[in-house]
Amino acid sequence: MSRTVSYWSSSPTLPKRAGVGLKSCHFAEIVEATPDIGFFEIHAENYLVDGGPFHHYLTRIREHYSLSVHGVALSIGADAPLDLAHLNALKQLLDRYQPQSFSEHLAWSTHGDIFLNDLLPLPYTAATLQRVCDHIDQVQTHLKRRMLLENPATYIEFAESAIDEASFITEVIRRTGCSLLLDVNNIHVSCANHGRDPRAYLRALPLAQVGEIHLAGFSEKTDSLGAPLLIDNHGSPVSDAVWDLYAYTLEITGPIPTLIERDSDVPALDVLVQEATIADRQLQSLLVATT
Question: What is the distance between the alpha carbons of residues 262 and 20, in angstroms, rounded to a whole number?
Fold first, then answer.
C-alpha cells in the first residue's frame, strides 16, 4: 500500500522544459545574462553551509528560475541508519529555497563512519527492499515532501539478487509513494554493461511516476577481460544512443522536465544551453501536440 501523505501532492513541480546543472563557474554569467533555461539543478551537498558565495548566487538565481535539488550522500541503501545530522541539514536547505524537486540515488556510499564518495550498487533482495523503503519513508516524513529516486548506473551485479532491478524500483515506489527520477543515460550504460535491452528495461519501470529525467554523457573503457565497459562520468555531451532512447521515452511518458548533467570537463554555459535546447525542442513539440 502506498504511504503517500496528502501534503506531498500539493508540492510545486518543475516546468516541462530542459534544465542544466548549476556550476559555480557559471554563477556570474547566469546572474548577468539570465539565459533561457527551464530550471537549474544543484547538488545538495555543495550547499550544506550557512553562507558564502554559493548561497549568495543561488539566492539571486532562485529569484528567476525553478530549482531541483539532487542529493548524492544520503546513502539510501546502506545497511545502517540514516545520518540524522545530514538529514537535518538537507531539510534546512530545502526549507530555505523551496525547490520544485528533491531527488536521491538508489545506492549506498557509507560504511560505519566512512564516506566512500561513490554511488555503490545494491543486492536486490527482500531485506534490501525493506531497508530502502524504510529509509525513504524516513526521508519523506522528515523532509515533509515526496522525493524522487534515481535508477542507478551499474557495472557489477550480485549473485544473491532475487529481484530484477526494474521490479525492485517499481515495488519501492509502490510501497513508499516516492516518484522516479528516470536517468536515461544510466539505463543505456547499465544495459550495455549487462547485455540487456534498454527499451525493455525502460518499459518495465513505473513510467507514470516519473517526475524528472536526467541525460548525460559516458566514457568507454574495457574491463579486466577486455570487454567493453561504459562509465557514467557526466563528462561529455549526450550520445546519439541516449538521445534516441530519450525520444523513445517521451513517446511513452509525454513531456517530462529534463536535466542535462555535466559534472566533469564542464563546458561554457552557452554549450550547455545549446544541448538543453535539443531536449527543449522535443518537449515543446510534445506539448504543442497535446494541446
Answer: 8
Q: Are 138 and 101 in contact (CB under 8 A)?
A: no
CA–CA gap between residue 46 and residue 32 (Å, rounded): 22
- pTM here is 0.94
| Ramachandran category for residue 105: left, alpha or beta (phi over 0 → left; psi -120 to 50 → alpha) | beta
CB 98 within 8 A of CB 69: no
Question: Residue range 82-91: average pLDDT?
Answer: 96
Q: All domains of the chain, ordered by start, with CATH?
A: 6-289 (3.20.20.150)
C-alpha cell, 142: 522528515
Q: Rg of the chain's alpha carbons, rounded to an integer?
A: 18
Q: Are strands 18-21 and 39-43 parallel, antiparallel or unpaired?
A: parallel
Q: In whole angstroms, how far apart are CA 172 and each of 161, 180, 182, 211?
A: 15, 10, 14, 15
Check residue 2 and give its pLDDT. 44
